[in-house]
Amino acid sequence: MLKTLLFIGTGSFMGGVLRYLASRLFQSWTALSFPLGTLLVNILGCFLIGFFYGLFERGNLLNANTRMLLTVGFCGGFTTFSTFINESFQLLKGDNLFYLALYLIISLLGGLLMLYLGYSLIKLI
């Protein structure tokens, strides 16, 4: 278990650092206030997690610790959005359309609501 956690932590560190650097680079491409850096990192993260899971389904190309490093660690550190999209895709792939819709609605609206509540709570203090 400790070994797996070290793999995840290492991947998270690498993904988080790369997210910061990539986001800043992408954002420097525009003078607009539109969050281009975050958008491109999220989209790239979705490609990467899809790529990694595609590799895993082709056979035993990577061991379990490497999978944890690349998906939970690296992609999770790079962007949790990629995990969100992958979970949504798995629901779609499994024809769980009701759960897909429920997951998307609750995640997006619930997340926005909770952000607002957290923000509002601080304003009250």
Description:
With 125 residues, the chain is mostly helical. It has a domain at 2-80. Helices cover 84% and strands 0% of the residues. The protein contains five helices and no strands. It has helices at 2-27, 36-57, 64-78, 80-93, 97-124. Helix 1 packs parallel to helix 3 (64-78). The termini are far apart. The mean pLDDT is 90.
Strand content: under 5%
Q: Biggest sheet, in brief?
A: none
Helix/strand-derived category reads mainly alpha
Low-confidence stretches: none
Helical stretch count? 5
Helical proportion, percent range: over 70%
The H-and-E topology, N to C, reads as: HHHHH
Distance between the termini: 41 Å
Number of strands: 0
Task: Provide key terms for this protein.
single chain, 125 residues, mainly alpha, 84% helix
Task: Provide the fold topology.
Blueprint: H1 2-27, H2 36-57, H3 64-78, H4 80-93, H5 97-124
Helix pairs in contact: 1-2, 1-3, 2-3, 2-4, 3-4, 4-5
Summarize this entry quickly.
The chain is mainly α and 125 residues long. The chain is 84% helix and 0% strand.
